[in-house]
Amino acid sequence: MCTRLAVLGSTVALAAAALVPLQLAGATPAAAAAYDWVALGDSYTAGVIPAAGETFEVPRDGCERTDLSYPQVIDRDLGSLIDLTNVSCGAATVEDVTFNAQKPIGRHLPPFSEDPDYPFPPVPPQSEAVNPGTDVVTVGVGGNTLGFAEILFTCLQLGDGSGGVGTPCRDDLADNIPARLTKVGKDYDDMLATLHERAPHAKIVNVGYPTVIPEDTAKCRYNDWEQFASITPGDLDWLRDDVLQPLNATIEKAAGEHGDAFVDLAPSSRSHSVCDAGKWVEGVFTTFPTDVAFVHPNAKGHKNAADQVSVAILNALGVN
After folding, report:
1. Which H helix or E strand runs over 6?
2. d(C-alpha 6, C-alpha 8), whole Å
3. pTM
4. Helix axis angle, 245-257 relative to 177-198, nearest 10°?
């Protein structure tokens, strides 16, 4: 990892140097040119949970962008090469990126947590941060349009008292997942069309979701609130195979149809699920019962995303 980052750092330094025009002797060197980057997305981009760092907005806007989220990590790593505008927002849907004025929820997740500053004023549609001068856009969104948090909560309720046996959540929800995925695909297509219209020359990098549930759900302890609590192993298998993997596939398909890049975070995070010892995604709680995470990446997960997305940004810009 250190070697790869050293190479990346050297690449960035060389690229930045290449952007500086030749100077006449004695002239004041020109500053390295910066590419304008806009980061869009939901809580998996914004950070949101304490395990992904501290919020840095003053005053808080309820979007809960954290200083260890992957856009902020990349911004520090790439320095003056990139000028970041990060408007990602926890709980954002695809439509919130495209045209909705979103009402952020902060860390207000009853019955698990109450945010003293809730409710928050609406924030503009994220796409408004994109303009003809934007060079690169990253976007990581789709889970809230699918209703993944709602699905998780339903699975928690239906699995309670089951003893970890059966697939009560799949039995209740499976029939409506295809329609949810269809909506994600349609909304995502509309979003990309809007982004390309707003920034005709920008490169768009679409970021998928990491591995959340392991291939072997025997690793997951039933009723462990720092993992998936009362969700049964059978329902975890269903969530992985029929909900999360198709969600990533839907995003990848839409990206391909628009000629855009897709960053698949699942392979690199495969051994770092909620139920793995070296997890990059927290469970329902980071520390039960006080530190709610509701299945979001921690700082290590965001560092992995930063490694993958930074390479994609440099490739998209032709800086490699």
Report:
1. helix 2-18
2. 5
3. 0.90
4. 30
Write out pLDDT tens, residues 246-280: 999 999 999 999 999 999 999 999 999 999 999 99
| Paired residues of 36 in beta bridges | 83
* Residue 303 to residue 162: CA distance in whole angstroms: 36
Residue type for position 6: A
Rounded to an integer, what distance in angstroms lies between the CA atom of residue 193 and that of residue 273?
33
Give me the residue label for tokens 């930045």. Answer: 16
pLDDT digits (tens, 9 = 90+) for 92-129: 999 999 999 999 999 999 988 999 999 999 999 999 99
Helix (H, G, I), strand (E, B) or coil at 104: coil
Domains, the chain, in order of start with CATH, read 33-317 (3.40.50.1110)
Q: DSSP assignment of 261-304, as one string? A: EEE--TGGGTT-STTSTT-SB--SEEETTTEE-SS-B-HHHHHH
